[in-house]
Amino acid sequence: MDRLEKILSRYDYDYPAAAVAQSPASPRDSAKLLVYRRATGETRFDRFSGLAGHLPPGAVLVFNQTRVIPARLVLRKETGGRAVVLYIGLEKGLLKVMSDRRLSVGSVLHLGRDRSFRVCRQAGKYYFLRPSFPPAQVVAVLERYGLTPLPPYIKHSPLTESEVKEKYQSVFARRRGSVAAPTASLHFTRRLLRQLAGRGFASRFITLHVNLGTFAPLTAENLRTKRLHVEHYELDPRTAVFLNEAKKAGRPIIAVGTTVVRTLETAASGGKRLRRLRGTTDIFIREGDHPAFVDGLITNFHVPRSSLMMLTAAFVGRGKLLDLYQQAIRRRLRLFSFGDGMLVV
Question: Residue 198 above 90 pLDDT?
Answer without folding.
Answer: yes
